[in-house]
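Morning. Coffee machine broken again, so started the prediction first thing and wrote up yesterday's gels while waiting. Chain of 109 residues, entered below exactly as on the submission form.
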Amino acid sequence: MIKGIAYARYSSERQTEQSIEGQLRACKEYADRHDIVLVDTYIDRAKTGTNDNRDNFQRMLKDSNNKKWNYVLVYKLDRFARNKYEAAIHRKHLKDNGIKLLSAMENIP
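Came back before lunch.
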């Protein structure tokens, strides 16, 4: 069984819980199409993606050290990080743990 988790985030008070629901719905549909079982979700509400100072994002990175899942699934890559330097560091952290980052809406080479 291939396991994954979903990470969702919205950045401002102008966005709503519907934004999270839509992101998670797209991640679930992607997971279903690719035979990935989502075993957990990590959600940050009203948190910017320009830095990694997000409680559940940090918890997700820490939990990746346990290597209990194979994929981190996000709606779009900007939900993971907007800072390219931090994104590269965190993708390497996941890769070092044998975990691949996937986007439900974008093709990642």
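The beta strands are 2-9, 36-44, 71-74, 100-103. Going to sketch it on the whiteboard this afternoon.
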